[in-house]
Amino acid sequence: MTTGALTAHTAFDTDVPAIDEQWQAEAFALAVELHRKGVFSWTEWSAALGSEIARSAERGEDDYFGCWLNAVEALVTRKGVASTEQLTSLAGAWREAYATTPHGQPVRLRRSASSTPDGLSDTEDT
Fold it and tell me: Which residue stretches of the chain are H helix?
């Protein structure tokens, strides 16, 4: 390392990737918050994440935080917090909001209260 910069990779000498993007931090925080709210145990989380990592490796992919997101989605649907259709609809609404938001402005999700599964959002509709 010639710059003297210290990264999470070198600072902790680990194979776990550093958080590089906002969505990765949010996926991490979402998993922690859902556990805190009692949606799943750490044992269930570990099994779900391990399963996603194994599937990713079988496909030859290396997307650690994508595995986090997939594990959250799997547990949320398995636990009945949200359906696959609700998650798909919500993801589409976020894509639409992102695509139509002027550069430099905060992305605001416009949706009906019924489109957000209980326990997945504590924000108000805009």
Answer: 8-11, 22-36, 42-58, 64-78, 84-100
